[in-house]
Amino acid sequence: MGKRTMPGSNQPSKKRKGGGKGKYGNHTGKHSSRAAIESGDVGVFVTCDMGKEGKCLSEALDIFSHAIEGNENQEEEHDTDDEDIEAQIRRELEGLQPNKDKKRRFQPLQMDMPCVTFMRLDPSIDPVELVHRLCSEAHAHPETKKSRWIKRMHPVTSIRKTLSVDLAAFAKEILKPHFHSGGPPKTVSLNPLPRSLGLWAVGDPADIGNDPITHLAYAIRPTVRGNSKLNRDMIIKTVADAVGPEHPVNLTNYDLMILVDVAQNVIGMSVVQGDYDKLKRFNLAEIYDPSPKEETAATATTTDTKA
């Protein structure tokens, strides 16, 4: 007598619970990609809680797309105010046609590490302006909460591979428009000593044609994840040397903040405005839901001011 066949032996085995998730429990989603970050990429590092990487990227894609395409739609509506009816109908019909040649302006990339994702942007999009606008809007209207999974957003003007990067040259490239070419913000006037003393904080404006002094206070904020080649001290020293001695360091009252993000084998850099700390270091979760400690401090400050 042969062995009994086990019931259901011809049926396919069920998938394990949690199948389809990545190494860190990511819900990969239909938008995310495992493509590698490449040298020269422009984008935003977006952080989240462990296991929420896929949801974070989907949320970032939605928020970024709405921020960019919403503005463009408003501009198009303004441009069509003077068009005749036929022209407007033609534009609408063209917009309904699928455009296979249209470039992807956003590409969500999952990284092989927890809590960190990357949104690659089309080079026509300024990541610094985009992140600053989103955080400023959230700070001005925290009641209109638009995100649940996103934590911090760090813009990246450009990416390099850590194994081949010339950090000094890379820093000079990113910093030049802001510190060495009269880039935005163009000038910041320092408070001089009384003119009657014949002394000025840095030189005499008469020596430079009465132009405002262009010395900018700055700070450097490096973040290193999963990389042993580059460390904080090395980054700070190299970037400070690239800025030069003519610009003072001020960790609390800076005009510009230099962000340096190292994640595994890539390094990204950008220069942001002086309200970086005011905007909770671009942490959307903190902007929408500030910690109780910060709320208590803010209340105490308000009370002291009224007193």
UniProtKB/TrEMBL annotation:
Matching CDD domains: THUMP_THUMPD1_like
Record InterPro entries: THUMP_dom (IPR004114), THUMPD1-like (IPR040183)
Pfam families: THUMP (PF02926)
Domain THUMP as annotated: residue spans: 138-273
Region (Disordered): 1-36
Keywords linked to the UniProt accession: RNA-binding
PROSITE patterns noted in UniProt: THUMP
GO biological process terms on file: tRNA modification
Molecular function per GO: RNA binding
Annotated protein name in UniProt: THUMP domain-containing protein
Phylogenetic placement of the source organism: Eukaryota, Fungi, Dikarya, Ascomycota, Pezizomycotina
